[in-house]
Amino acid sequence: MNNGQIILEIKNLHAGIEGKKILKGLNLTIKAGEVHAIMGPNGSGKSTLSAVLAGKSEYEVIEGEVIYMGKNLLEMAPEERAKEGVFLAFQYPVEIPGVNCAYFLKSALNEVRKYRGLSELDAIEFLNLAKEKMKLLELPEDFLKRSVNEGFSGGEKKKNEIFQMIILEPTLAILDETDSGLDIDALRIVSEGINQMRKPDKAQLVITHYQRLLNYIVPDFVHVLANGQIIKSGGKELALELEEHGYDWLTNGKG
Amino acid sequence: MNKVLVQTKVKDLNHFNEHFKKAIEPLESSYPEWLFNLKLRALEQFNDIGFPAQDDEDWRFTNISPIEKIHWKIATKQSVQNLPEDILKNVPFLNIKSNRLVFVNGFYIPELSMITEELGFIGNLENFIKGDSDTLKKIYDESGLALNDAFCALNMALSTDGALILIPPNIKLSKPVHIVHISLGSDSSIMSVPQHIISVGRHSNLILFETYSNYSADTTFTNAFTRIIANNGAVVEHIRCQTENQNSYNIATTQSCLGESVQLSLFSIALGGKISRHTIKSRLNGEGIESVFGGIYMASDSQLNDHYLVVEHIKPRCISYEYFNGILSDKARGVFNGRIYVHPNAIKTDAKQTNKNLLLSDDAVINSKPQLEIYADDVKCTHGATVGRLDQNAIFYLRSRGININDARRMLIWAFASEILDHINNQECREKLEKIVADWLSSHFANI
Ligand SMILES: Nc1ncnc2c1ncn2[C@@H]1O[C@H](COP(=O)(O)OP(=O)(O)O)[C@@H](O)[C@H]1O
Ligand SMILES: [Mg+2]
């Protein structure tokens, strides 16, 4: 894949939940090697967008299309999207009592590898890989034995999302408010993890409420989402302007 | 209206009674008088109370009329002549090294049994009855036999064989003891009535497996009665696993009477049977007992699975923890009754009960009834029951990482079941059970 090839193309996306329209004609194109940031006030539909891209069935697509690597993303089951290389780091990662991180992640990785025509990893190979990446994220020794997200601190949950991303090596990573609830050390560690995945053949969509994260992950493009639409796009300096003037600066101007 | 009902009931019972009486009568010449009289009394008792009806609070959710309607034939020794070569094919835990006692239709099969333990007695009841009847009487007395349950009374009246395990004090067996029960059907509907008695001496250690399975898909009825006496300081882990076929009926009672400082872990894994009920009654009759009661029931199609648990705290400073998880799909019904009874003397009791249920279909039903009856001060007792469905958010989370929907569901159900299995100390047995549960999940829930 070459730098510049289109990875994701969202065209006139209208989507909602429980009869409520949330996205109202969203357009976005992401190419290989790019990092895009979406910023927007609370309730503007950022998580709705990520849920629609990941395939959460409660969300209803009313109009528009989403093309991922030349394929109709909206037709794929969530697991198929994952195997095709779409990854969502959840804003609120789910606790799964009784399923330990090692078993969960090894199963996921092997599903993804099988799909990509790679050999499955055995327990030892997986453990070696996992341990190496855990060090990077400064995750505790017993991490793999713990139930997925159960009893994790806010920071650990977010680190776990990034840990999974690094192991699964997605083509398109969507990071939904990965910075929220992180202290400054955790933010640095998590950002390093995300930056490590910045590669010419991959793309990242970083969703955030605050500009803070973008000091660590420098985006190529910044989009402002308000009222279910992207109302302004620009370079990384747009984030700073937003920080200075607040969202009202744009929303008021528009409305 | 009521009168007519009562009359029909008595008439039906008469049919049983005649048949049952005929089965008992020939025993008179070979049995010790006390035991023969006990059998007659038990039959009378059964005749008095009859099969439980649904107005009986203890059986409210478990309608056993399908069992009543069938004209069961009490299994005879002839039914276990010329056993098929692969008679053990469906028996769980078979490749865990153990002292193995095999029963088919309630009768001991020495050729299939393997006892390497030389201390104490590990064998069957039938021969013992004719031999050391005094020892047996003492154990019967110690076990605090209660016949107020119809099925226990019927078992007591009719059973002539079962396991007898007598472990002297201060012994740690090198291997578990495995009581294997296999129901083998025939043209007529066969009822088996195994009765097992286990007495563990002071400070001795016993791991006991008790398994119930069928050889084929025939309809059978197993009415089992197990009594455990654990003397002061004994350590007992008892794992009962019922995997009978879905045409069968399995009604069983496990009574245990525990002495001072006993450590008991009792697990009931119930996957089989059209109707199955396991009554567990435990008397914590010494200070400082630590007991755990765990169970998993999994039912699909139109299976009915009932656990009825009564734990009596009689002496101070005892612990009892109860964990029962149920998984129900299709039109299956689960019933859980858990009663913790704390007698006035039992101060500093620590009792905790949880019953969690996972419903996998709209038609599956659970009736859960936890009960605490506390007559002592200064106790710590909690209980709780939950009913839920698979967490859709968790399923989505797993799928979003590439795990297929069915694997995601199985993973969550598996996690729910392994919560209970994690409490089992015996590693080999726990691993076997993990496999049994996983296999059951993949055969029953391939497409949930
Ligand atoms: N399950 C739901 N049912 C109804 N409304 C919802 C649901 N989830 C989100 N919403 C609404 O949709 C809007 C967008 O939410 P969301 O996408 O989470 O915003 P953001 O992530 O930008 O804060 C909000 O007004 C929110 O209240
Ligand atoms: Mg959000």
Q: Describe it for me?
A:
- Chain A has helices spanning 46-54, 78-84, 101-115, 123-136, 154-168, 184-196, 237-245, 248-254; strands at residues 6-17, 20-31, 35-39, 59-68, 71-72, 86-89, 96-100, 147-148, 172-176, 203-208, 221-226, 229-234.
- By secondary structure, chain A is of the alpha/beta class.
- In chain A, the strands form three sheets. Chain A has a six-stranded mixed β-sheet with strand order 6-9-10-3-11-12, with helices on both faces. In chain A, strands 2-1-4-5 form a four-stranded antiparallel β-sheet. Chain A has a two-stranded antiparallel ribbon with strand order 7-8.
- In chain A, strand 1 (6-17) and strand 2 form a beta hairpin.
- Chain A starts with 5 loop residues before the first strand and ends with a helix.
- The model of chain A has no long low-confidence stretch (mean pLDDT 94).
- In chain B, helix 8 (405-421) runs antiparallel to helix 9.
- Residues 1-11 of chain B have low confidence and may be disordered.
- The chains are: A alpha/beta (255), B alpha/beta (448).
- Chain A binds chain B through residues 54-57, 77-79, 81-83, 87-88, 90, 93-99, 103-105, 107-109, 111-112, 115, 147-148, 164, 168, and chain B through 391, 393-394, 396-405, 407-408, 411-412, 414-416, 418-419.
- Residues 46-47, 91, 176-177 of chain A line the site of magnesium ion.
Strand content of chain B: 35-45%
Q: Note poorly predicted spans of chain B.
A: 1-11
Q: If interface size is counted as residues with C-beta under 8 Å from the partner's C-beta, which chains form the largest one?
A: A-B, 33 and 22 residues
The helix count of chain A comes to 8
Largest sheet of chain A: 6 strands, mixed
What structural class results from the helix and strand content of chain A?
alpha/beta
CA radius of gyration of chain A: 18 Å
Chain-averaged pLDDT of chain A: 94
DSSP summary, beta strand count of chain B: 21
Using the alpha-carbon principal axes, give the shape of chain A.
Answer: globular
Relative strand content of chain A: 25-35%
Order of helices and strands of chain A: EEEHEEHEEHHEHEHEEEHH
- Residue share in helices of chain A? 25-40%
End-to-end C-alpha gap of chain B: 45 Å
What oligomeric state best describes the polypeptide chains here? heterodimer
Strand order of the largest sheet of chain A: 6-9-10-3-11-12
Category by helix and strand content of chain B = alpha/beta
Shape of chain B: globular
Number of strands of chain A: 12
User: Order of helices and strands of chain B, N to C?
Assistant: HHHEEEEHHHEEEEEEEEEEEEEEEEEHHH
